[in-house]
């Protein structure tokens, strides 16, 4: 028997054994292999689908992140504008309040100055009147040392009162 040219019986037995092995493999082996390959293909396809979904989610997250950052910038700008407006308003109120307070203090000072001026004028008038009376008294005493001069002065006063 030669390996290069097999006998007819050997070919029959080899074909029969190949058929049995093929039948066993076709009945139990191939379905398991095909099932395993199909499961692996399904897993790969599922992984690819999940990767695409994850990539899409990442793109969405990136756009959402950009939108959130933009909203945050707008909100920051709005808050800064409101703070500037509030600051300006507070400064303006403080200026107005300071001006009002200064006006009140100035008016009080004017009133106080006027009252002190009036008081000083009254005191001066009183002093002038007292001085005038004292001077008049001294002048009259000097001029009216004699009875004759006193009688003449009384006569003049009476004449002035009559007229």
Explained architecture:
This protein has 163 residues and is mostly helical. It has one domain (8-158). 93% of the residues lie in helices and 0% in strands. The chain is built from two helices and no strands. It has helices at residues 8-143, 147-162. The longest helix is centred in the middle third of the chain and has 136 residues, at 8-143. It is rod-shaped, with a radius of gyration of 64 Å. The mean pLDDT is 89.
CA radius of gyration: 64 Å
Overall 3D shape:
rod-shaped
* Helix/strand order: HH
**CA-to-CA gap between the ends?**
191 Å
Biggest sheet layout: none
Number of helical elements: 2
Total count of domains: 1
Structural class estimated from helices and strands: mainly alpha
Amount of beta strand: under 5%
- The quaternary state of the protein chains shown equals single chain
Mean pLDDT: 89
Low-confidence stretches: none
Helix content: over 70%
Care to count the β-strands?
Answer: 0
């Amino acid at each position: 028997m030669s390996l290069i040219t097999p006998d007819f019986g050997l070919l029959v037995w080899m074909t029969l054994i190949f058929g049995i092995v093929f039948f066993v493999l076709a009945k139990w082996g191939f379905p398991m292999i095909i099932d395993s390959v199909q499961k692996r293909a399904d897993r790969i396809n599922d992984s690819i689908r999940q990767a695409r979904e994850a990539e899409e989610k990442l793109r969405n997250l990136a756009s959402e992140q950009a939108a959130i950052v933009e909203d945050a910038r707008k909100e920051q700008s709005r808050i800064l504008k409101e703070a500037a407006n509030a600051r300006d308003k507070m400064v303006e109120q403080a200026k107005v309040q300071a001006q009002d307070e200064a006006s009140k203090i100035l008016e009080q000072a004017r009133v106080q100055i006027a009252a002190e001026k009036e008081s000083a004028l009254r005191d001066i008038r009183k002093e002038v009147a007292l001085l005038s009376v004292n001077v008049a008294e001294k002048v009259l005493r000097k001029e009216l040392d004699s009875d004759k001069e006193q009688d003449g002065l009384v006569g003049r006063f009476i004449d002035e009162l009559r007229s």
